[in-house]
Amino acid sequence: MIEVMRLHKVDFKYNDTPILKEISCVIRPGELIHIIGPNGGGKTTLLKLLMGFLEPSSGSIRIMGKPPEKMRKKMAYVPQIFPFDRLFPISVMEVVLSGRLSTLRWHGRYRQEDKEIAIECLKEVDLLEFKDQAMGSLSGGQLQRALIARALATQPQILILDEPTSCIDFKAQLEIDSILKRLKRRMTILMVTHDLDHIGKDSDRVFCVHGKLYELKPEEVCQHFSMGLYQKPTKPSVFEEVMK
Amino acid sequence: MSFLQALMQHSVLQYAMLAAVFASIAGGVVGSYVVIKRLSFISGGIAHSILGGIGFSVWLKNTYSIAWLSPLWGALLAGLISALILGWIHLYYREREDSVIAAIWSVGIALGILFLANTPGPKIELGNYLIGNILWVTPKELWLLLALNVVILTVVAFTYNRLLTLCFDETQAKLQGVAVKGLYLILLMLIATTIVLLIQVVGAILVITMLVVPATIANLFSRFLPTMMAIAVLINIAFSYFGIFFAYHLSWPAGATIALLAGASYVLALLLRSKKLKLRA
Question: Are A53 and A71 within 8 A, CB to CB?
Fold first, then answer.
């Protein structure tokens, strides 16, 4: 397979207000793509379109040749800030197991195989010792790693992360970076981020979303982007287009 | 005569306690979902809409002399219909959800009043159903309550993991291919059925007490759903037993006594919890 995602002239309007215009791109298997852009630029909308939670106003999106809503089981999603009630009565293992929900049988019980997969995913994110703890007792970084483990439990071909490192400390950010580094090439990874420190040699491409989609090489992204200033990056043409 | 002696001797009290235990089991289990999914207001709407169904079945029974028709059947029908309407509104017209709940709430009571006012025979007060009277439970109704309990617990057993994910993270459930809308409607119908059970004990107005308060208290002291459900069931049984106990000795209405006991216990639980947190700090 030479492409996992293809977007062709995708427009999205919300109540006649254009959010995204003429987005076209092809994403190949095993790529790690960082998505940056100003707040309100349409990054989260783009992710929702890719997952089939929103429909484009025009244009087409194909995930492995099929419409996104039919390919949801191939995708896993790690949300931005999880609206999480710390008193919610659920264990870390139950959260990770919920990544196996699509394999539940008629009686609604997980198989032994599902439990083994969940344990492997917890090992992957170094959270196995917390498996029987309440989700509400985890720190911000641990919580985000548990959500990554849940995403991995679905055994996805595409992993979508929406600012997974926002609101967590630096050490936890490094841990998540290291997890993503290990996962690279095993699956296609799309990660929205505001922190440009994440965009290093591991990133294959960078998408800057600001109404339109501008493709950048990782080395073209300068730190000024992170401040929302959109000052001149290495490639003047891109900067000028974004500023328009 | 002490309460325990009376309980041993009088079948009315035994039926009442049995009904309270059935209601407590369903109330504790389904109430836990109500608390973690924050559905208290919707549950209140369903509880009050049920009065329309009760009024309708009483009117039907007396007008057409249908001896077997218990008000419970009307309550169940009205509860399920309003659960489906509210669920539909939640899923497709969320921005008007609270207004619709309020409308169903008041229309339910209005229908109940109108049907009872037009029911031939001796005058029946809606207040009887609003505050309930557990001592009215008949053996036939007990069987119906038992059957409803079995249905509720069976559905919960088969949908436990899906409902847990629905309550925790709806987006995840959707990504996993779960029929989220259908599951949400099932949850509301479970709530409606549980409310029918609880109305026998405390009436429509006080039903939220047995649905929400025990589960909320249980949530303060438990970190996993099965534990929360078990504690909520035990608390519900305790409220029912001591509520009926105090009502028997003080000649108070049982439903109101249970609700008062629940409210006082909730305040106590909050105080205990804050003390526990302070000690930890």
Answer: no
